[in-house]
Amino acid sequence: MQRYATLWLTMITIGCGALIYGAPSFWPVTILVLPMVAGSLLLDPRSLPWFVVFVMSVLALLVPRQPMLSPRTVIAIITLFVLGFFILMSSFRRSRLGVAGVTGESMLVDLRDRIQSQGTLPVLPEGWYAESALRSAGGTPFAGDFVVASRTGDRLDLAVVDVSGKGAQAGARSLLLSGAFGGLIAGLGPAEFLPAANDYLLRQGWEEGFATAIHLSLDLGSGVFELRTAGHPPGVQLMAGSGKWVVHETEGPLLGIFEDAQFDCAHGSLKAGDAMLLYTDGLVETPDRDIFLGIDRLVGQSERMLRQGFDDGAKRLIDRLGSTNDDRALLLIHRR
What is the pTM of this model? Predict the structure, then answer.
């Protein structure tokens, strides 16, 4: 494929050069920008530098054929050389990945889809409703917050994770961790997931490799749950019987900082009508607002908005709360 692309682009460049050489007063040198831009999109990092040099050589040969070097023509020639220089520099950066521009973009789209698929919630039995919502900083499709879920029989495991960094900067780490955590949560017991996740992060040796997480292990038959956090905001539960919201405070260090970390467990039960919210700090904390005030605001908004029903409740809440400059994730589970 690359061989044919290089051949066709070379022929197009030669054709453009022939047109400029034959009728320099009619065909401007700027038409050489077409094969140059096409090459930056289609050629791999090994072929692109040679192709850019070839186009620049053709341009250098055609400059003396220009009938009159007006200021506009000189600016166009300089612009072409500058464009070729930037494309050449970008090809050297792209050589770290080893793929062409279009292929690299398709790879990023595939990575984004894989991150989102990791957070797909399993089918729940009748009487249960679960929904997750994610929003990234600046509206990019890559975020440092993600959700992983697993169901084995009547046991449902859900985890909301916040990776250090935000937006596209945290996207690569988020992809790696979402795949690893998805496997851990499906293969380990409730008490083993966070310690295993902590060990996995420590092995990576990242300079900014910490993360926070909240893990809910729920028995769909009885509604009994175990809740653990790792440096993460606490889960909040709606008690339908009393109409009150309960904050489940648990202790646990950040993931990826300390070896042999211990994570406390909160026990409880989701009865008919109860709901649980798991979320990241981007939803409740801002530079000018304390996290506890943010949790109070989350509870207040939830109480008002969820009166309209729990369906699409996570999406309605996440669009109302938090800062658009930070990644946000929210998971809602409700026992109907």
Answer: 0.77
